[in-house]
Amino acid sequence: xxxxxxxxxxxxxxxxxxxxxxxxxxxxxxxxxxxxxxxxxxxxxxxxxxxxxxxxxxxxxxxxxxxxxxxxxxxxxxxxxxxxxxxxxxxxxxxxx
Length: 97
Fold this sequence. Notes:
The chain is of the alpha+beta class. It has one domain: 2-Layer Sandwich (Alpha-Beta Plaits). Helices cover about 25% and strands about 40% of the residues. It has two helices and five strands. The chain has a five-stranded mixed beta sheet, covered by helices on one side. The longest helix has 13 residues, at about 55-65. The chain is globular and about 35 Å long. The mean pLDDT is about 95.
């Protein structure tokens, strides 16, 4: 896979990731890395992220997700890479599901 190829990542982040500014941390990091997609809290206490961008940017983004903001305690990041669907034009914070 070429590092310049645009791909999609879908991730679930678990730990102390709600009520600590995690979604807005993800939003800012996505903006900084020119990544499109969305982030949202889930009722099970996890955070869900869908992101599209270049492979090298997504790898850095994934490292950022594993770290989180200073107030978070990330325990696990479960993710998959897939083909891009092209529906996202910007990065958004979505409502809890």
